[in-house]
TrEMBL record:
Keywords: Repeat, WD repeat. Residues 112-159 are annotated as: Disordered. Belongs to the WD repeat WDR55 family. This is Guanine nucleotide-binding protein subunit beta-like protein. Residues 133-159 have a biased composition (Acidic residues).
């Protein structure tokens, strides 16, 4: 049994021995507000610092950060039935859905930052804009070269 403590520690107890904490995992600067079990050894925690952390219990290891709620405390976490998405809600008055399909690939846990669909869409839009801006600037450079006479492709010289 794993419990989140106000000190930011995850307390790990054996089911039959409630009096003795079997292990402690220190990895949160503030209180652990919410947890969602991914499998027997991995869970996601939500802290009052707004971060969603992926934690391995056996052995104790912080695997990474899934996302954040901009320093607002996380109130609740839940996985979808197929574990492909994690849903979080926070004091920032938002409910966010995080893509967790990368958690398991070929049976191994691979950690990288997950992003909400909205964040991915914004990044794609920025990439497209950057590409179009670079295309526009290269077109402008060609036009400037023609005006300066440096690169004149006209047939005026042949006459």
């Amino acid at each position: 049994v794993v419990v989140g403590l106000q000190s930011g520690v995850l307390g790990i107890f054996t089911w039959d021995l409630w009096g003795d904490m079997r292990d402690r995992f220190v990895g949160h600067p503030r209180s652990v507000q919410a947890m969602a079990k991914y499998n027997e050894d991995v869970l996601v925690t939500g802290s009052s610092d707004g971060l969603l952390r992926v934690v391995q219990i056996h052995p104790n290891k912080l695997l990474g950060v899934v996302g954040d709620h901009d320093d607002f405390p996380v109130e609740a976490l839940s996985f979808t039935f197929d574990k492909q998405c994690l849903v979080s809600c926070s004091h920032d008055n938002t409910v966010k859905i995080w893509d967790t399909s990368f958690f398991e690939e070929d049976g191994a846990l691979q950690m990288e930052e997950a992003k909400s669909k909205k964040q991915r869409r914004r990044e794609r839009q920025k990439e497209k804009k950057a590409e179009s801006d670079s295309d526009d600037s290269s077109d402008e450079e060609e036009g400037e070269a023609d005006e300066d006479g440096d690169e004149d492709d006209s047939d005026d010289d042949d006459e």
